[in-house]
Write a structure and sequence with these properties.
- The protein is built from 15 helices and seven strands.
- It is of the alpha+beta class.
- It has two domains: 226 residues, Hypothetical protein, domain 2 (Endonuclease III, domain 1), CATH 1.10.340.30; 109 residues, Nucleoside Triphosphate Pyrophosphohydrolase (Alpha-Beta Complex), CATH 3.90.79.
- Strands 1, 2, 3, 4, 5, 6 and 7 form a seven-stranded mixed β-sheet that branches.
- The termini are far apart.
- Bound molecules: iron/sulfur cluster (SF4).
- The site of iron/sulfur cluster (SF4) has 14 residues, from helix 9 and helix 12.
Length: 353
């Protein structure tokens, strides 16, 4: 496409997109103000997680930790409990690291330049762009999967969007719109691009082009080639791991233990488990070394939990046992509900109420 024509399109995008956003934006809890702590927290929670799933976590997190100082001082177990079920727990650990950086280096005030924001733990180009534009109206685009989808469809851009150089190039092109045509409304423009990708120019199935404010500009729509974009790398199949997971119940208490400090689900609680699937007989006999005494089998069922690159196929074995060896921590149902950060992968193995 000729440069002059592209510039014309760039000029039209905010003119069409901003009024549409003003009319159609969803009422989301993190859109009620532009407080950097709120925008930052929501952007981190929304990585890899659906909006509806994030809403109650966001509200609960801010009730418990209303500002950056509170987050910086929060005990690890409390932080993990607040994040329990959201997954990708390194996000919470990085949030706290960044909060501690902000307290130590910026006297607790959220930094205001893109470079400073980008230097905080757990903040990459996308999140830095989102905070810089939404909170401070800086001309810094936030390019995530939603935005890449809109952009590659708009321009029939067939480069692979998994390529970091392609993302950088699209970001640079978008910056031209922010600096020349956004009329200072950079935060609105960022949110409008995100909203269009999330609600209209959707993935997996046909986008709602009939509702799109940009359809008159959109090359993919005009050439009936929407389904080709964005071009992605073919994903590798997930690795499957099999486990036998134990719900060891003694009286009303059940056994949990801490996971190692590094690796998947680091530092969280887990149910005791062994590698591989077992039948009922082996499930009971293979835990003799745990010294939990006589075991009565209550139930067995299969559970699956999917991580990004791994699938856990688990046999959940509920046993009533007679001893509580000190190798495990024995928690009450109340402690399990209120204090123990047990990731979803294990929580789905617990007996149904
Ligand atoms: S016209 Fe359709 S494909 Fe093009 S940006 Fe809009 S929703 Fe996406």
């Amino acid at each position: 496409m000729q440069k002059k024509r592209i510039s014309g399109i760039y000029a039209e995008i905010p003119a069409l997109l901003l009024p549409w956003f003003a009319e159609n934006q969803r009422d989301l809890p993190w859109r009620r103000d532009r407080e950097p702590y709120h925008v930052w927290l929501s952007e981190i929670m929304l990585q890899q997680t659906r909006v509806e799933a994030v809403k109650p976590y966001y509200v609960r997190f801010l009730e418990a930790l209303p500002d950056i100082a509170a987050l910086s001082e929060c005990p690890h177990d409390t932080l993990m409990k607040l994040w329990e079920g959201l997954g990708y727990y390194s996000r919470a650990r990085n949030l706290q690291k960044a909060a501690q950086q902000i307290v130590a280096e910026y006297s607790g005030e959220f930094p205001r330049s893109y470079a400073e924001i980008r230097s905080l733990a757990g903040i990459g180009d996308y999140t830095a762009g989102a905070i810089a534009s939404i909170c401070f109206d800086l001309p810094e685009p936030a390019v995530d999967g939603n935005v890449l989808r809109v952009w590659t469809r708009l321009f029939c851009d067939s480069r692979c969007t998994d390529d970091a150089a392609v993302k950088r190039s699209i970001r640079e092109n978008m910056r031209e719109i922010y600096t020349k045509y956004a009329d200072g409304k950079c935060g609105q423009l960022t949110q409008a691009f995100m909203e269009l990708g999330a609600t209209v120019c959707v993935p997996n199935g046909a986008p709602h082009c009939e509702l799109c404010p940009l359809r008159a500009l959109c090359e993919a729509h005009k050439s009936d080639s929407v389904s080709i974009f964005p071009v992605r790398k073919v994903k590798k199949a997930r690795r499957i791991e099999e486990y036998t997971v134990y719900i060891l119940q003694c009286g009303e208490r059940i056994a949990v233990q801490k996971r190692p400090k590094t690796g998947l689900l680091a530092g969280l609680w887990e149910l005791p488990h062994l590698d591989g699937k077992r039948d009922a007989q082996a499930a009971v006999s293979d835990i003799a070394a745990w010294e939990t005494g006589a075991a009565e089998l209550i139930s067995m069922r299969n559970c699956v939990h999917i991580f990004t690159h791994i699938e856990w196929h688990m046999t959940a074995v509920h046993l009533l046992v007679t001893k509580k060896p000190a190798r495990f921590t024995w928690v009450t149902p109340e402690q399990l509900a209120a204090e123990t950060a047990l990731p979803t992968a294990f929580r789905i193995c617990l007996p149904k109420e």
